[in-house]
Amino acid sequence: MLNQFSRTELIFGKEAMEKLSESRVAVFGIGGVGGYTVEALARSGVGHLDLIDDDRVCLTNINRQIYATRKTVGKYKVDVAEERIHEINPDCDVRTYKTFFMPDTKDQFDFSEYDYVVDAIDTVTGKLELVMSSKAASVPIISSMGAGNKVDPTAFEVADIYKTSVCPLAKVMRRELKKSGVRSLKVVYSKEQPIRPLEDMAISCRTNCICPPGTARKCTERRDIPGSNAFVPSVVGLIIAGEVIKDLTSFSRGER
Fold this sequence. Notes:
- This protein has seven helices and seven strands.
- It is α/β, with parallel strands linked by helices.
- Strand 2 (about 50), helix 4 (about 75-90) and strand 3 (about 95) form a beta-alpha-beta unit.
- The longest helix is centred in the last third of the chain and has 17 residues, at about 235-250.
- The radius of gyration is 18 Å and the shape is globular.
């Protein structure tokens, strides 16, 4: 029967679409990267989505985050995302968590419930805990490496963490994962050398923080304020979504 996912079914087939409908994917961090991942997963027919992010939409998010508009500034990102997902697929089961994922909040989540985990957060401690929790539950995970301060969306690749190079975040993750005995991790990363942001305090959140009232982690407290754009984080998010969909459906070109 014709529905909003019929064009996708023409590629993946009915059995795969049923698999997606039954799958639960947790996306940790729904900003520039994770927001586009959620969008693509919802439009691909994933039937159960857990969205984890404690942040509110800020004016400075509008340049790159799909849920950020003038209308949504000040609203929780997970609330905006849930509403949008239901406009795409009213039948999608969405669970939201206004939580900053770290080792001290991990017990809020039962990783055994997930069919796939997406790591789109930007703290090393949180990323490492996500990997360890997913591995402990034997749940596949894909992790986003650095997307800030970059301008070439064609430079991103899917690789195992131990085959990455150049990316500073990937370097730290390789070292820490090796210490923890993790032998593999699927990541999306770029070999593009990061650009050093302009040191212009007139346009920096460092001295002009406009985070909405109630924001727990303000820009003035961040160690770095990276530059960003509309076309790099979105591409990373869509690459991640594609990997999740192909892995969940065991899709192979030419086979259905």
